[in-house]
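Handoff note, outgoing to incoming analyst
You'll be picking up this chain. Sequence as last confirmed:
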Amino acid sequence: MKQGLAVGVAGLFGFVFLGLVALTGPATAVAHSVTFDFTGTFVAADPHSLGGIFTVPIASYPASRISGSFTFNGETADSNGSGTIGQYDETIQSLSFSVTKPITGDAYQFGLDLSGSSGRPAQNSIAVNADSTAVNQSYVLSASVRNLVPNGPILDGIEHNAVAFFINLLKPNGSVFSTDALPETPPALSPFSLYNNLANRDGQFRLVFASSDGDHTIIGNLTSLTVSAVPVPAAVYLFGTGLIGLAAMARRRMSTVSPVSAQIPLSDAGQRTPWVTR
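Most recent structure output, in case you need it:
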C-alpha cells in the first residue's frame, strides 16, 4: 500500500513539474496562435454574371453572407524590415468560412489551401501598412483557398472553384496603425472605406473563383472582425490537476489519522488507577 501511495504522489508531482516546465519554458518553443472571427455581406461581383449566385440584385432576396475565422502565428517575423510596412509570410495557420446562398439559405464551405492544388502559387501572408505618409494605411490578408465540398458553384453549366481569399482594409488619409507590428487585436472597422465602384473596387474582402471561362470575383464588406476567445493553455490544466491531486491526497491522509484522545491511566492490572488524595 505504501508503495502504491508513493507511486501516486510521484505521479502527481510529475504533473506539477511538467506544468511548471511548460508554463515557464521559452516563449518561442510554441507558436503563439491568435484567432480572428469575421462576418460580412457580398455587395458586388466582377464579372457581374456571378451576382446571380451571390449578390442577387433583387430587394426580396438578401445578398449572400460570409462567416468564418482565421488563425495566425503572432510571433511571425517581419520579412520587410522597413519599420513602416510589415510583411508576415507563412503566418496563417488555418482559415475556414462559409458563404450562404441568397435564395435557399444553405451554404458553400471553403478552407485554406496550402498544397497549391489550384496550380497557382500558394498565398499565405498578412501585411500591415503603418506609413502615416502613405495614401492608404492598410491591413491585408492573402490566402489560397479551396472548396471543402466536391462541387463548387455552377454558373451556365460551368463549375467554379475557389482559389483565393483576401481581406483588404484600407484607410485613406489617416492613421490607424501606430506601428507595423502584426496586431493581435483586430482594428475597428469604422475607419476603413467600404466598397465603392469608383473609389474602392476591391471592397473589404473578396473571394476569387477559377473556371474554364476565366476568373470570377465576388466582393463584399465586413460587418464584424473580432478576436476569438483565447483557450486556456494545456500547461495550466496540467499544473492545476497536479496541485488538486496533491491537496486531495493530503486531506485524505489527515482524515485517516485517528485523533489523539485523552486516556485514563491504567494500573498494571488493567484497572483504573484510583485517585490518591493527600
